[in-house]
Amino acid sequence: MTLRKFGQDDIFYNRIKTFPKQEFLIYDAHTYHNGKVNMSGKLATNIEHVTQGHINLHEINVDRPATSLVYPFIYKGGSREAFKTITTKFFNDQSVFEFGDQITGSYPLSASVTRVFYTSGTDIDASGNLDKPFIVSLKNTLNWYTHLSPEYAYSSSEWGWRKGRDPLNLISIPSIFYGSSIRKGSVDLKFYVSGTLVGQLQDKNRNGELIETTGSNTDEVAGVVLYNEGFILLTGSWVLNSAHTEAYTGAGGLNPTWLYFGAGLQNDNITGLISSSYVLAFEGVNYIPTVTMFAHASAGEFNNSNNPTFVSGNQRLLRATGSTGYFENEKQTIKNTVASVYNDPTGSFQRQVWISRVAIYDEDKNVIGIAKLARPVKKRESDSLTVKMKLDF
Question: Are 222 and 210 in contact (CB under 8 A)?
């Protein structure tokens, strides 16, 4: 075994920028993520144990019986460690947890897009309660982005709107689907009625404005996107198809508008929308840290092998043994592996080895990783080789 230390120019740290594509189809109270449907397995009717259209964090408990799912746990002790969902007051309550008790969580953890529809109202009702808490909480964020477009403004006296008062459709996208942010200009919303596209929104100007590109009011702004926060706010109230009505709010026949985009998502609890369907598509921005390492085998180096077949057969591996140790036979002859056009004799002897793997050690000479080559590479004593290794974190 030969060890060689990485030089100053042998390790490079980098970052890969990726744009994962995501698409959600919502139809008849069902959500389909990237065309995926729940599958049954050998031990479970739903192998991931999550609702249709959800993503399974860590993908734990795949095809396990529902009665024997893996779960996280921790014991209450003097270190006072607990899950972040356990408050200090709850942790200290001896009637709930005594020292030595097991505190458990549950898997799987899942997430999907959600929707909240707000009718006309006020920021604060007569009792002093927030009438639209999610919208009010986004007030400062919306106003922050007004330098990109005035459509972000929480309220506008010039245009006569107030997001905390007017009807609004809020679509929430968990960050697990996009990573660091949603890619600007990638959001695409499509509204279908009986399989026919009646409206489409796109961010043509890449400034967060969702402009109707197909429908009854083309070039009109129907909402905005918060790319870094993962929210879509739709305010377009014009009718997309006057000949069609459905119970988008759960009761009454209403014409399709952008305020009803996504109606029927699981959190809506609205069923029976058999004619309307919606597609939400976007790209995320995800950064993957990488490290690239170059392992060099220069000429004259790495010309021996630990493989037992490296030496010729019928030789004593040990010269002598005794009370003080084992002594290798320093006169062992190396097997000649040089190829020849003849069966006998072989070609002229040369030192050559086949590199099949590279082990990476830490400063204490502990193996922390092994890179295997798809095909062993022959190295003669006069050759200089470099093995490039790349690792994504």
Answer: yes
- Please give the structure tokens belonging to residue 44: 């479970």
Q: What is the pLDDT of residues 190-212, one digit of tens each?
A: 999 999 999 999 999 999 999 99
Calculate the dihedral angle through the C-alpha atoms of 182, 183, 185, 186, rounding to the nearest 10 degrees: -80
Q: Which residue has the tokens 């009011």?
A: 217
**Are 305 and 374 found together in one domain?**
yes
Strand, helix or coil at 345?
coil
Q: What share of the chain is helix, strand, coil (3-state, %, to 5)?
A: 10, 35, 55
Same domain, 158 and 284: yes
- Cα 148 to Cα 198, 205, 206, 235, 271, distances in angstroms: 28, 10, 9, 18, 38
* CA–CA distance, 176 with 94 (Å, rounded to integer): 36
- Alpha carbons within 13 A on the beta-carbon side of 299: 2
How far from each other are the two terminal CA atoms of the chain, in whole angstroms?
28
pTM of the model: 0.78
Domain boundary among 247, 271, 288: 288
Backbone φ and ψ of 69, nearest 5°? -80, 145
For 229, the token pair is 């926060």
| Residue 25 near residue 35 (C-beta atoms within 8 A) | yes
Number of domains in the chain: 3
Token pair, residue 382, equals 């006069």
Cβ atoms 164, 154 nearer than 8 A: yes
Residue range 97-124: average pLDDT? 86
Distance CA 191, CA 26 (A): 10
How far is CA 201 from its chain centroid?
A: 26
Q: What is the DSSP string of 209-220?
A: EEEEEESSSTT-
What is the extent of the structural domain holding 44?
A: 37-110
State pLDDT tens for residues 224-266.
999 999 999 999 999 999 999 999 998 888 999 999 999 998 8
Could you give the CA distance from residue 184 to residue 172 in angstroms, rounded to a whole number?
16
236 neighbors 228 (Cβ within 8 angstroms): no
**CA 226 to CA 206: how far, in whole Å?**
12
Question: Which H, E and C letters describe 259-276, residue by residue?
Answer: HHCCCCCHHHCCCCCCCE
